[in-house]
Amino acid sequence: MINITFITQAGESKTVQASSGTIMELARQHGIEGIDGDCGGVCSCATCHVHVDPAFAEVVGEPSDIEKDMLELDDHADAYSRLGCQIEIEPSFDGLILTVAN
User: Fold this and answer.
1) Residue 71 DSSP one-character state
2) Is residue 86 very low, low, confident or very high in pLDDT (cuts 50, 70, 90)?
3) Residue 21 belongs to what H/E stretch?
4) For residue 80, what pLDDT is reported?
């Protein structure tokens, strides 16, 4: 299993296990506050915005052009921003730390 840690908007840390799916799906399954996924994972709402820990930025990779367009609409986006619905979980993500965007 792959261990992924979410840091909530309240600063609480919650580590969950995954084997497949997207970050958004994983967060919703485990009730991670601040990850709503209102659009159902089709990259059209940015309610699954997370900040990738810089140590994992290369592992997770860059956002697609469509994802970048959505992130441009979010005032809290930065160089480590990604949409959870667009991140497919991979074995190399073990230990990944994600901070839920405000």
Assistant:
1) H
2) very high
3) none
4) 98
> How far is it, in rounded angstroms, from Cα 75 to Cα 102?
9
Region of 21 (left: φ > 0; alpha: ψ -120 to 50; beta: rest) is left
Residue 69: partners with Cβ closer than 8 Å, 6 or more residues away: none
Question: What is this structure's pTM?
Answer: 0.95
Kindly state the DSSP code that residue 22 receives in the 8-state scheme.
B
- Give the whole-number percent of the chain exceeding pLDDT 70: 100
Tokens of 30: 């485990």
**51: β partners:** 81, 99
Tokens of 35: 């990850």
Q: What is the pLDDT of residue 100?
A: 98
**Going edge to edge, which strands form the sheet with 49-52?**
13-18, 2-7, 96-100, 49-52, 81-83
Amino acid letter for position 43: C
Mean pLDDT across the chain: 96
Phi, psi of 27 (to 5 degrees): -60, -45
